Fold this protein.
Amino acid sequence: MSGYPLYAPVHKGLRLALGNLSNHISKMNVENQDTVDAFVKEFECVAGILHSHAENEDTEIEPTVKKLSPALADRLVIEHHETDELLKELEGVVRKLTSSAPEERKEISFQLYQTFNNFHAAYLKHLQSEEEDIQTLLWANLTVEELHSITEAIASRVPPHHLMEYFRYMIPAQNLEEQVEMLGIVKKSAPIPAYQATCSLAQEVLSAEEWNDLKTELDAVV
């Protein structure tokens, strides 16, 4: 790494979220309504994050990329359109699954498996493209302060309740140093109830040992 990681924190969370969905789909007993309901709840949360993330990038990052490299900006637009269409197709299959009787779901579940894998592969390739090509372009042309400003602008666009949905995947996907940096910012800048809610979420999604290590570090942040 040679600069401020604009993409890494959220992309780590997205990779974890998609990995969880992949595992859920592979193991899901579609004749069990509770299992299907749990999957749909998780899927809708992740899909909402993905739509929000793409919109935020289009608004806060794409204009800068367009000024620096129109060709890369055009490719970014195409990738966002392609992954958005694949996500919409996947959402359609999920709706088909939920509207079908349990005994009709076996064939649909295989369609879901294939459609998700197609989307997952394309999306992972897109994330890597952003981290390798777009990030390198931004490192070469923007200061750390300017990159921080982009992060802050994106964060300001996300409602607090939706930010917690992001954190549900971002926190466990990061290493301790990254967790301390992210939650330390929350501690310093957010209202106390918001920080307490974030810590409660962290305690929920981390192991007891991981949470204890994080709490020790956060207690030292002033």
Observations:
- The first helix runs from residue 8 to 27.
- The radius of gyration is 19 Å.
